Each structure stands twice: as structure tokens, then as C-alpha cells.
Amino acid sequence: MIGDVTTPTSQTTPTRASRKPRPDAALANAVDVALEAVVDAVGSADVGEHLGHQNEGERVVSHTFDCTRPGYRGWRWSVVLTRASRQKRVTVDEVVLLPGPDAIVAPEWVPYLERVQPEDVGPGDLLIPEEDDLRLAPAWFVGDEFTDPLLDDRPARQVADELGLGRVRVLSMWGRDEAAERWFEGPGGPEAAVAVAAPGRCRDCGFLQRLAGPLASVFGVCANGGVPDDGRVVALDHGCGGHSETTLKKSQLPPELSSPVFDTVGSDEIEPL
Ligand code: SF4
């Protein structure tokens, strides 16, 4: 039975805060009213056994019935009953179908931008950022309408665009921090397996190409064509076996070959038997 109100035992004295309010007795007993309402709404063929009741508030109780409609295994009809103060007459608030713990329900909705993974985007596909994408910030907060009399009457933004200086939006601080976090925790970060086993760090590798801007103190770009990280952003604390100063330890060197032995014995030096 669901929705049973637990009755405190004599050993445990519930506090005022932990005591559950009792369901209204008249509403809790009105199973026939609830059954009539649900049968009236959906037909008797879809209504199964009474599963219980639960208190929903002051003089509000819901009764639950199993749903026997094909395809709705685990779903339940819930009939909410109420009555006015000092009135015995029970009235029906609503009849709804609700999923039970074993019900098959649709997976939670995920916006398409979160669903699409980088590997899903192929040549020719468009991935349009949302208008209010937090990763981007307007490049021009002020001065958009500003007109410089020395540069004729065109807005400053238009002049900047013509000079190749302007971008409509640039990376916001939020977008930059998000990218930095992703890169740091990704395959180019210090915790990547290849970095943990590496003999040196990227910060002192000759193949590291430094970046400009605020990310330069943490990241660079690997320019070693012989390793998988070539062309990728790597953390300065990342590393790999292709580090420019990598040398083998003595124990890793191949064993030295012994000196060659020249066999100078000719057939004329062999005594016949
Ligand atoms: S070769 Fe290795 S250590 Fe050097 S920059 Fe690239 S990833 Fe870093």
C-alpha cells in the first residue's frame, strides 16, 4: 500500500516537527468516490486495484489506482479529493495519470546544443551558437554609435571593421575560463596518462609554441609532428615521451655489442685428416 500514514510506536515519541499530519478521515475512507471518478473519466477497463492514499494537505487526500491500460505498465491513476471546512460532502479535484517507480518514462530532455558532441559535427554541418551564449561577449559595449569627425561621419565600429580590427563578438571571461578548465582536464592536461608517465614537462620542451594573451601562463601549443599532441593546446604541466630533452637512462640503453671476431683461418691452414 502506498501512502500509508505511519503510526508512531510507544517506544518513539515523535517531535512536533517530525509528526506527519494525519489525512482527513472522511477523505481517506472515500475510496468509492475516487473509484467512481476515475472510472467515469477513463472507463473501468483501464482501472486496476486501489493502491492506497496519501495526505496532500489540509482536507486534501489523493487515492491511487493501478493503471491497466496497455503500454502504461507501472503508471497509476491519482484521484485528488477534498471537502470544505465543516462539510461532509467529498468533491473530486482532479484525476491524473502519474508514473510509478517502475513506469517507463521518456528520458530527461537535453537541449540539442548539449546533446551534440564535437565528433558529431562533420564537414558542412552548422553549429550556430545561441544568441545569449555565455561563452561570447559583444566586442563593443560602448562607442557603437560614436562618430569621429576626423574620420568622416562613419561610426567608429564601421571604421574598425574596415581596418580589420572588429569582431562582432569575442570570447567572454566565462567562455575563456570554461575552455581553460576543459583543456586542463582533457588529454592535453597534466593528469593525462601520457603526461603522468612523461620524462619532462611541456614548459621546458623545445617543441612548445607559446601563446599570447591571458591563457599564455598556463597553455601553449605542441609543435612536435612526431607525437599525438602535435597541433594541440597543451598545459605547461603536460608532457610526453617526445620531450625535446628526452634521453634514455643507462638501464634503458641497448646492451653494448662485443667486439667483432674475425675468422682468419683459411682452408690451407686446416690439416688434412
Ligand atoms: S613534444 Fe611533448 S613535451 Fe614537448 S610540447 Fe609536445 S607534448 Fe609537450
How would you characterize the overall build of this protein?
It is built from six helices and nine strands; from the N terminus they run H-H-E-E-E-E-H-E-H-E-H-H-E-E-E. The longest helix is centred in the middle third of the chain and has 13 residues, at 173-185. Helix content is 16%, strand content 19%. Strand 7 (208-210) and strand 8 (219-222) form a beta hairpin. The strands form three sheets. The chain has a four-stranded antiparallel β-sheet, covered by helices on one side. The termini are far apart. With 273 residues, the protein is an alpha+beta fold. Residues 1-14 have low confidence and may be disordered. It is elongated. Among the domains are: 25-99, Nuclear Transport Factor 2, Chain: A (Roll); 132-171, no CATH class; 173-244, no CATH class. The site of iron/sulfur cluster (SF4) has 14 residues, from loops.
Find the count of extended strands (DSSP E, 2+ residues): 9
Please state roughly what percent of the residues sit in beta strands, choosing from under 5%, 5-15%, 15-25%, 25-35%, 35-45% or over 45%: 15-25%
Order of helices and strands: HHEEEEHEHEHHEEE
Average pLDDT, to the nearest integer?
84
Share of helical residues: 10-25%
Write down the Rg.
Answer: 38 Å
List unreliable stretches of 5+ residues: 1-14
CATH class of one domain: Alpha Beta
